[in-house]
Design a protein that fits this description.
The chain is mainly alpha-helical and about 60 residues long. It is about 90% helix and about 0% strand. It has helices at about 1-10, 15-35, 35-60. α2 (about 15-35) packs antiparallel against α3 (about 35-60).
Length: about 60
């Protein structure tokens, strides 16, 4: 019963978990190329994640 509830909670946010993981791997790959490229990709990733979190909050009616 507890395991079922755990998987239901995870399933609701699995797309966000995969999205954040993919951004993390892209940033890691850019750091492997060059430190400068990695820093720029990190900034770009933070901008994307910030916009995503604002979009999610706007859909749920938060932040008013």
């Amino acid at each position: 019963m507890i395991i079922l509830k755990f998987f239901q909670c995870i399933w609701e946010v699995v797309d966000v978990i995969f999205y954040v993981a993919s951004i993390a791997f892209f940033v890691w790959g850019f750091f492997r190329v060059s430190t400068t490229v990695g820093i720029f990709s990190l900034g770009f990733a933070f901008i994307i994640l910030g916009l995503l979190s604002e979009a999610i909050a706007g859909q749920k009616g938060g932040g008013k």
